[in-house]
Amino acid sequence: MVLWNKEAVNTLQWDSGKSLADLVALEVGNIGENLAIRRAAYLNACDNNNVCMYVHPAGPGPLSVDNCSMGKFGSMVVLTQSASPDNQLSVEELGRQLCQHIVGMNPKSVGSLEEEEQSHAAAVGHVEQSDEAEQVAAAAGGGADVVSNASSEDQSEIKETPKEDESRLVFQDFLMDESLTVGELLRQNSAEVTDFVRFGCGEELEEEEDAGA
């Protein structure tokens, strides 16, 4: 993925020889509304990669000119998917849903799918151990309520532990089904996200915050 900041993107040359900044200035004069291009991203699908995109609001007929879709928010994702009869979603549908998730949840990085899987396995193992301890205590008579309460606290703690990791895509609860993490969704569909980008009209950018500091 190639990213351009405001300075770089506005110096790009159009077919007419004019810079993008010149074209924007002309359009501002034509429509009488202020607008600015603040950044841009270029993603290229190669090998087995797929690039999927989504703009919001989509609606029944999204505003599109010359294959350029426009909206208040937009996202693109690069993913790979291995062929498997167990895959529940096509790469196109999976990519679209991931882009919707990225627009809605605003992750900051992809995160490690391997680490997410290990974290999920550890959490499941802990819950199973708690359930087993509760059954043993109940069979022994008494103490079941105590074990059950402790088990509930442990499970709550496990669920709340990765709060600091929620900015990582694969650790986030999936927007369309919160019983799954994005990592679980990817494993169900033999897929992996290699990169993504999210844009929003008027959003604050780090470089602009640094300049104003």
Please give a structural write-up.
With 213 residues, this protein is of the alpha+beta class. It folds into 3 domains: 1-42, no CATH class; 47-111 and 169-213, Tetrahydropterin Synthase, Chain A; 112-167. The chain has helices spanning 6-10, 20-31, 91-105, 113-140, 144-160, 182-188, 206-212; strands at residues 2-4, 40-42, 50-56, 64-65, 68-69, 73-81, 173-174, 177-181, 191-200. The strands form 4 sheets. It has a 3-stranded antiparallel β-sheet, with helices on one face. Strands 1-2 form a two-stranded antiparallel sheet. It has a two-stranded antiparallel sheet with strand order 4-5. A hairpin with a 2-residue loop joins strand 7 (173-174) and strand 8 (177-181). Helix 4 runs antiparallel to helix 5 (144-160). The longest helix is centred in the middle third of the chain and has 28 residues, at 113-140. It is elongated and about 80 Å long.
